[in-house]
Amino acid sequence: MKTPVIREVKSLNMSCDRIGNLLLVKFLPVAGKETCIFVPASIVFWLLKHLPVNQDPQLTAPAVVPRVEQYDWDNPNTPRALTVQCKQFSNAIRMQFALERGPDLMVLLDRSNVELMRQMMVAYSKDLIDLDAE
To answer: Is 22 helix (H, G, I), strand (E, B) or coil?
Structure first.
């Protein structure tokens, strides 16, 4: 099966489940329709250790943030991420999520979306359970 590629993400949003196991991440691509995936807490905590922190005081936030609706949580077609691989470029990060079903999902996040993702994950980290914490 061919890996779908979202060339560039315009914006993203997240929501945490009530138990603290995972985040629902909703990507809004520059072209195409929104895509949702469930990201387990273990991946969130790994990303928080590895995502670069913004060093540019002039960096602006993405203009539009997609809304996370109850439908996104209830949609039986929303896959769960099993792993993520990241590759950092000078102005972007490519993330390839291996999903429990269907083809992998690859997204390209510019620096403002990387920082938005990092800040959202930091905020939700208080609600998530880090099972790998020592």
So the answer is: strand
Q: CA gyration radius for the chain?
A: 14
Cα distance between residue 58 and residue 50, in whole Å: 22
Q: Tens digits of per-residue pLDDT, 56-104?
A: 888 888 888 899 999 999 999 999 999 999 999 989 999 999 999 888 8
Q: Could you tell me if 35 and 27 are in contact, meaning their C-beta atoms sit under 8 angstroms apart?
A: yes
Tokens 């949580």 sit at which residue? 73
Q: Do the beta carbons of residue 98 and residue 83 sit within 8 Å?
A: yes
pLDDT digits (tens, 9 = 90+) for 66-79: 999 999 999 999 99
DSSP 30: S
Q: Any idea of the CA torsion for 78, 67, 128, 18, to the nearest 10 degrees?
A: -80
Question: Which pLDDT tens digit goes with each residue over 4-39?
Answer: 667 789 999 999 998 888 999 999 998 888 999 999
Is-contact 69 78, C-beta < 8 A? no
Q: Which helix (H) or strand (E) holds 84?
A: strand 81-88
Kindly report the backbone phi and psi dihedral angles of residue 8, in degrees, each rounded to the nearest multiple of 5, phi listed first: -150, 135
